Amino acid sequence: MSVDMFGRHLHPGKGVMQGPPGEGFRLTPEGNYDITNKRLCHVAPPMDVYDAINLDCVEDLIQTESTQMQRRLANVRQSMEKMLANLENMLTNLKSELTEKLQQQRTDLDMTHSLTLRHAELIKTLDVKVNGRHVGDGETTSGGGAPQTSATPLSTASSGYSRL
């Protein structure tokens, strides 16, 4: 049996090298293997749940998980973008509806104001026809005669029309 410069033994015909005697696995008091800070090389891919795993398998697992997470994130991003687009459409529609209703209320308010002014004018006209022609504060003329003091005209009574 020959020994190389590192102290390894070469078995004739087998081509297998062994380390110096006494090197190998030791058992801990708990029954686990202690390889005294040495590397475990050429570990095959795992076959069972509790098999050792090599670096290549770990990198494959990390890559697989990373790819799956990127897909999930892309799906979440796409869903959020759809939701955002729907919310923007809803806000646009709501803004249009509110603008339309506000414009209708402005139109209704303008119409109400116009009608109120028209009613005030009609009341003044009726007041003049009922009480005579209005000349000044409380003075009227009946049929072209001298001015007379009369009752307060309807248009200036406390009905609120005088403020318009």
Keywords:
single chain; three-stranded antiparallel β-sheet; disordered C terminus; 1 helix; mainly alpha; rod-shaped; 164 residues; 8 strands; 2 domains
How many beta strands in the DSSP annotation?
8
Number of domains: 2
Shape: rod-shaped
Query: What is the overall number of helices?
Result: 1
What is the beta-strand fraction? 5-15%
Which whole number gives the mean pLDDT?
A: 79
What's the end-to-end separation, in Å?
A: 125 Å
- pLDDT below 50 for ≥5 consecutive residues: which ranges? 140-164
Helix fraction, binned, reads: 40-55%
Main β-sheet, in a few words? Answer: 3 strands, antiparallel
Radius of gyration, in angstroms, nearest whole number: 52 Å
Characterization of the model:
It is a single chain. This protein has a 3-stranded antiparallel sheet with strand order 1-2-3, with no helix packed on it. A 3-stranded antiparallel sheet has the order 6-7-8, with helices on one face. It contains 1 helix and 8 strands. It has 2 domains: 1-38, no CATH class; 39-163, no CATH class. The chain has one helix spanning 55-131; strands at residues 2-3, 9-10, 17-18, 26-27, 33-34, 133-136, 139-141, 148-149. It has 164 residues and is mainly α. The protein is 47% helix and 12% strand. It is rod-shaped and about 145 Å long.
